[in-house]
Specification:
This protein has 420 residues and is an all-alpha fold. The chain contains 16 helices and no strands.
């Protein structure tokens, strides 16, 4: 029993900090609401267009186009401004967008172009929120808990991927799709209350970066000159573009290959997220990461996606989604923690923003590509392309490590280990 308690305390050690505990609680409610909306939004477009892959890919892309266009600039703002105030503003804005979407669905006047406009508007809030949220975490905990807090922050969003799709499936089947958007609007109150009730004296804000020209270019040069950051961001950008399109591929596989409905889609997404939660807790227990760990996780993602692409029926497809969810989050969580802990404090906002651009910002490119490929060649081909991409990228990264191109040293949990 003592060993179990010790392992639990090791895994959740950053939650001993009251401000981070409040923040994590608010985020899990808000993130669950966001996943309720993600499922509802995707299925709304599937239903409105009778499963048109291009339309599904387009609405997914529009949610993340602002991240691609303005995500790097949002990182500069995160390094300049009070991150807590930025998060209050983005949470309020996203909540209003969700409430408008719900009202349009309830009124029966919703049209596809309205869905596109509101998806893009929600994306603006995401672009501003992501770098501030990621870098704010390290201001809430002591340096020695920074890596654990970053992983648990990712685990919160991973856990929400289990809770959100399940709630979405129940709401769509019983109350109607409009309530999904209203539920998301209400969920933002949790994070707003958490931010407003924090002990401001216990927050350790990083020194604001003075406004000057060339800060974005400076951040790009810093990342490119740091081998680990360069490798991580390249891997994340390529895999994010062609592999992390699960909203498109899983929804189209559910509807067009296996003939499922919203309930099956929500259940499959939740099942994939169960694997993701298990992986995120495993990653949270670790105190350090090597580039090799990230590469092996990417290889596992590629193999499981290829298996899912050839699944003969819905049961086998569901079976392969569990390890697919686990490997996807193992890759993403470890890559994100590695990027943040290797970055110097004055660059963390910009590094977090560039990571968000590499992951979320790649979706506007990959979503329509995978959607169009799935429309022309079938959903199996779309998910298989993602599997091949992740496999090839992982093998390239592993080969680079063996040749010594990238330094395979572990990263200590403390940001002090980051090179200047």
């Amino acid at each position: 029993m003592n060993r179990i308690r010790q392992a639990r305390r090791q895994t959740f050690r950053s939650l001993e900090t009251p401000n981070f505990r409040k923040y994590a609680f608010g985020q899990i409610i808000s993130a669950s609401g966001s996943w309720v909306q993600q499922i509802a939004l995707t299925w709304l477009v599937v239903r409105m267009t009778n499963g048109n892959g291009i339309a599904v890919g387009a609405v997914t892309a529009l949610q993340f186009t602002p991240v691609l266009i303005g995500g790097a600039w949002a990182g500069v703002l995160a390094d300049r401004l009070d991150k807590r105030k930025v998060l209050l503003a983005t949470s309020l804005g996203a909540g209003v967008c969700a409430a408008i979407m719900g009202a349009l669905v309830f009124s029966g006047v919703i049209q596809l172009w309205m869905v596109y406009v509101l998806a893009a508007t929600f994306g603006v809030a995401t672009a501003l929120d992501s770098p501030a949220r990621r870098s704010f975490v390290t201001e809430l905990v002591p340096d020695e808990h920074a890596s654990n807090a970053l992983i648990l922050n990712s685990s919160v969003f991973t856990s929400a991927r289990v809770i959100g799709p399940t709630i979405a499936a129940l709401l769509i089947a019983t109350a109607g799709i409009g309530w999904c958007f209203m539920a998301n609007a209400l969920s933002f109150l949790a994070v707003i209350v958490a931010l407003l009730t924090m002990d401001l004296g216990a927050i350790r804000p990083s020194e604001p970066v003075p406004r000057k020209k060339g800060q974005l270019v400076e951040g790009l040069r810093y990342v490119w000159a740091t081998p680990t950051l360069r490798t991580i961001l390249l891997l994340t950008a390529i895999i994010g573009t062609l592999s992390f399109n699960f909203q498109v591929t899983v929804s189209l596989m559910t509807r067009k290959v296996f003939g499922g409905e919203a309930g099956e889609f929500g259940a499959l997404y939740a099942l994939m997220s169960v694997g993701a939660v298990m992986a995120s807790l495993f990653v949270a227990h670790r105190e350090s990461f090597a580039e090799r760990f990230v590469s092996i996780a990417a290889l596992g993602l590629g193999v499981t996606m290829l298996l899912a692409a050839v699944a003969p029926n819905l049961a086998f497809f569901a079976l392969f989604l569990l390890p697919m969810g686990a490997t996807s989050i193992a890759f993403l969580s470890a890559a994100g923690a590695l990027a943040q802990t290797r970055a110097s404090p004055e660059y963390r906002g910009r590094v977090a923003a560039l990571f968000a651009v590499a992951f979320l910002g790649s979706t506007p490119i990959g979503g329509p590509i995978i959607g169009a490929i799935s429309q022309v060649f079938g959903p199996r081909f779309g998910i298989a392309l993602g599997g091949v991409t992740a496999t090839v990228c992982a093998l390239w990264a592993l080969r680079s490590l063996r040749r010594g191109v990238n330094r395979p040293a572990d990263v200590a949990a403390s940001p002090e280990a980051a090179p200047a």
